[in-house]
Amino acid sequence: MRAQFIFSEIGVGLRRNLTMTFAVVVSVALSLALFGSALLLNKQVDVMKGYWYDKVNVSIFFCNKADQETSKNCGKGAVTKQQKDVIKADLDKMPLVETVTYESSQEAYKHYKEQFGDSLLASSLTPDQMQESYRIKLTDPTKYEVVASAFADRPGVQEVQDQRNLLKNLFELLRNLNFAAVFIMALMLVVALMLIVNTVRVSAFSRRRETGIMRLVGASSLYIQVPFIMEAAVAGLLGAGLACVLLVAGRYFMIDNGMNLAEKLPLINFIGWDQVIRVLPLVLAVGLLMPAVAAFVALRKYLKV
User: Fold this and answer.
1) Computed over its alpha carbons, how large is the radius of gyration of the chain?
2) Distance CA 197, CA 291 (A)
């Protein structure tokens, strides 16, 4: 099979159907950009979970005087020093507990003012309304229930709180965004495949005379089909290349420069360039193989050889 003939036929096919080829490139680029974004967003959620779940604590909040009227667990009044000492001693005996840090009501008030000092609620709070607490670092954060079941009903304990629940809504939002990206990607992928099939059909119809002559002189089915398959593969590869550019540009302008989220949101551990680079070969491979397979299937119907 002469390579020169194959490449010349690819060029002829792409030029004859330039507008449809352009539509295929754009559709493939958008669908694969969404595909890569979905992979990176999923990786971002995993990175954030690994980063934050290693840092969050289990908090034991103690009753204060104000809780006596508002919390059913604090009917006997504010926590006593003896009750706190007993809880601290029991925490120190648990192998699951790595460290225990005490936060007074004054410290809690100070931290709250630092975070929400401009809010209307913060201006009405006083230190005695804030709760004392033990901040507990666990060797395995997933075993929060062990601590909760051991201390939730203790005298003087208002609540045992797993701080992972504070992050749960954020991770659920990111997961939902990921599912939305996958859904849109699937729709774009269907559009791209339909365009590829139509492009191959039009190309095969426009060259029916040439393929008829090739059949008469004994050309094999593969020899006739390869130019059409390669046309689709080239268009897909161009789209995949454009998708890679969009992914790299998105990472650069959103996180490093432009929006500069890495600097504006220092508490978020963003994915690095290594994760982006790992996704790019997969995007290129899908962009090359998907149109080629679609073209091969379409030729079995539209090109009788």
Assistant:
1) 31
2) 9
Q: Where in the sequence is the domain holding 25, given as residue range(s)?
A: 3-52+168-302
**For 261-296, what is each residue's pLDDT tens digit?**
767 766 577 888 888 899 999 999 988 888 888 888
pTM: 0.62
Is 179 found in the same domain as 143?
Answer: no
Tally the C-alpha atoms within 13 A of residue 147's C-alpha that lie toward its C-beta: 33
Of residues 96 and 177, more confidently modeled: 96
* Amino acid identity, position 22: F
Answer yes or no: do 102 and 136 share one domain: yes
**H or E segment and range at residue 30:** helix 18-53
The residues facing 89 across adjacent strands are none
In three state form, how does the secondary structure of 197-266 look?
A: HHHHHHHHHHCHHHHHHHHHCCCCHHHHHHHHHHHHHHHHHHHHHHHHHHHHHHHHHHHHCCCCHHHHCC
CATH number for 118: 3.30.70.3040
Q: Looking at the DSSP assignment, which residues form a beta bridge with residue 159?
A: 61
Phi, psi (rounded to 5 degrees) for 162:
-90, 115
Number of domains present in the structure of the chain: 2
- Extract the tokens encoding 246: 């969009």
User: For residue range 61-97, what is the model confidence (pLDDT) as tens digits?
Assistant: 888 887 777 777 787 778 888 988 898 999 888 888 8
The answer on 27 and 147 residing in a single domain is no
